[in-house]
Amino acid sequence: MTAAAAHPSCGAIASFLGTTRDHHEGKAVVRLEYEAYDRMALAELERIEREAAARFAVRSCAIAHRLGVVPPAEASVVVVVAAAHRGPAFDACRWAMDELKGTVPIWKKESYADGDAAWAKGKRLET
Q1: Residue 2 near residue 13, CB atoms below 8 Å
Q2: Of 34, 20, 32, 23, whose CA–CA distance to 111 is shortest?
Q3: Prediction pTM value
Q4: What pLDDT, in 10s, does the model give residues 15-61?
Q5: How many distinct helices (H) and strands (E) make up the chain?
Q6: Three-class DSSP category at 21
Q7: Is 55 exposed, middle or buried (CB count within 10 Å of its CB: 0-12, 13-18, 19+)?
Q8: Are 44 and 104 in contact (CB under 8 A)?
Q9: Closest Cα to residue 124, out of 102, 106, 107?
Q10: CA–CA gap between residue 6 and residue 82 (Å, rounded)
Q11: How far apart are CA 70 and CA 125, in angstroms?
Q12: CB count, 10 Å around CB of 60?
């Protein structure tokens, strides 16, 4: 994704790589699994990409999120932003990730070492 973002007009490519943790709230996590409402999730990711580009005046924003089982320490999400300067690239990258966490219908199920499992609590949407 980073190579695809490169452009002669851009002096900055900022990226965020979200990796899965082996713990959550004091519990050992042995497995993570992501599910999504695919059609809606893809549409929302595309909206975030477009809005980030417009809001921060960056050349491009690209987001990818894995679904299914993602072992601890592996990447589950990536955001890549290309811009003329680093400030807008960093700002757009952070905003896009925060917006993704708050609006995209992707759910994470955590399985713990003690045999329990739970869906991670989401962020409440503000209206």
Answers
A1: yes
A2: 32
A3: 0.90
A4: 999 999 999 999 999 999 999 999 999 999 999 999 999 999 999 99
A5: 3, 8
A6: coil
A7: middle
A8: yes
A9: 102
A10: 7
A11: 26
A12: 19
Amino acid at 78: V
What is the distance between the alpha carbons of residues 116 and 70, in angstroms, rounded to a whole number?
A: 18
Q: Which residue has tokens 């490169």?
A: 6
Return the structure tokens found at 88. 């807008």
Cα separation values, 31 from 9, 23, 34, 107, 111, Å: 42, 10, 10, 14, 5
Taking the C-alpha atoms of residue 71 and residue 52, their distance in angstroms, rounded to an integer, is: 29
Task: Output the six-digit token pair for 111.
Answer: 């399985």
Structure tokens at 122: 């989401």
Q: How far apart are CA 37 and CA 40, in angstroms?
A: 6
Q: How many residues does the chain have?
A: 127
Q: And the tokens for 120? A: 């991670």
